Please model this.
Amino acid sequence: MDGIFNKLNQYGLHDTRINKIMVEGENIILIFNEGVYRLSDSGRETDLTGARKLIITVAVTKNADIEDYLNVNKLFRKKREEISLKQLLKLVDKYSFDVFSMYFSAFNNEMLIVGDIGKFGAELYISDIVDAEYKVG
Model:
């Protein structure tokens, strides 16, 4: 649990942009073309890296689908609408996902990414995370 939190918090995602989201098997891959923020020893954002991928692995159980571990809400004019993974992928391809904040909860090893996609607010919940890794590219 602490290991996953530490892996996710190697870099800062505040004020970054997810340019693409891909799903490969049990992995959700977030692509940051402009990079993510390096963090100082005190946790402050210092400078942007080059392009990075955040590969998040979830514990997909038998007879389940990766979409069972994702919950995506689109927010507009004080209304919240749940959208599908397919809709999220299309929106991010068209507009990108501007990240405001990222939160992690040890309960269910879940992360929440909050931001904007085009003119909509967005919340992306990913649960049952078993591993996370940043890679160049």
About this structure: The CA atoms of residues 55 and 133 lie 5 Å apart. The two ends are 26 Å apart (CA to CA).
